[in-house]
Amino acid sequence: MLSKIHELANLDRFGVQPPEAYLYTSRSKCYNADGIDDYEDFASTIQAMTTIGLSQQEIDDIFKVLAAILWLGNIQFVENNDGNAAIADESVPTYVAYLLDVDGASVNKVSPSHNHLTIGSYVSYH
After folding, report:
1. Which of 32, 52, 93, 103 could form a disulfide with 107 if both were Cys (CB 3.0 to 4.6 A apart)?
2. Would you call 79 helix, strand, or coil by DSSP?
3. Rounded Cα gap, residues 96 and 110, in angstroms
4. What is the pLDDT of residue 77?
5. Which pLDDT tens digit goes with each residue over 34-73?
6. Residues 6 or more apart in contact with residue 90 via CB below 8 angstroms
7. Hey, what long-range contacts does 54-63 have (CB within 8 A, 24 or more apart)?
8. Domain 1-54 - what CATH class?
9. Every domain of the chain and the residues it spans
10. DSSP state at residue 123
């Protein structure tokens, strides 16, 4: 099924992997649902995008953003030698930067180097 979807949209251009490859989509371990035809739904989505007048570039940009979101979910943090947060695998934000057509340092800058407010706590990374 996924190979047919890849073929339909040429998703390999965006580094799209099977759902098992992403933290966001793999936690449930549910990759198929009875009565749902992913290929048909995906083809309908592409058709709807075309019907409303989206250009191929706009459709590609949507898939780039969606792929970047999936890849951002795979960023893992570790403690570096200074006791601060560091990105465990630099290839992930580098690839996200490529997808979003931004400088890789920009993605790294917004990841662990700013203060983050989370529910119930305040975390500061330097």
Report:
1. 93
2. strand
3. 12
4. 84
5. 898 888 898 899 999 999 999 999 998 998 999 999 998 8
6. 108
7. 60/13, 60/14, 63/9, 63/11, 63/14, 63/16
8. mainly alpha
9. 1-54, 75-126
10. E
